[in-house]
Amino acid sequence: MKIEIWSDIVCPFCYIGKRRIENALAKFRHADKIEVEWKSFLLNPDQVSDPSKTTAEYLSETKGWSYEQTLNSIKQVTQMAAEEGLTYLLEKSVVANPKDAHRVLQYAKTQGKGDKMKERLFKAYFTESANIADHNLLTELAGEIGLDKAKVKQVLDTDEFSDKVAQDIYESRQLEVRGVPFFVLDNKYGISGAQSPEVFKETLEKAWANFEKEPTQITGI
What domains are there in the chain, each with its CATH number? Predict the structure, then answer.
């Protein structure tokens, strides 16, 4: 059975959602028969990368919040992440357009390393305060998980895999996805947001029960 997940690398709830679906699958008796595919989504496609500015500063400016209000909001999300075993340093993360990172992710998927690449990108952005728009950094991160660095550099030096990113975004529009993370189980059951572990567990069980009755060959949405 297939689970497709639309998410953005700079979305704090997407990393939390990743952990929650992983934790649900760890307790799911049919986990070995589940295929997870990461889909690209851009919350702000026109974001201008600015590694000299922190995400906290950017949010304060764009949302009209005081810096103190922004830090309080960040603290709440950081606590939520900590409950899933994640370390967030959102007050230090830098403003970066993740489109090229998504292209590297799309390449990683062709090599069977989509999940590893997604995890490494999340950690780089949220925990290491790295500039995920930097091509040298992306190449190094890809190399860490065993991807061919020369091929990754080729991808980044061209427009390769942009069509795959665009296709994922097109599919999300067809599904009327308004926010991420967004999970589709067995092409039939949707979960919007980083819901509670109970929601993931219940939906997994429901989707699997239906899959066993009507197994289908998933070719994408």
Answer: 2-213 (3.40.30.10)
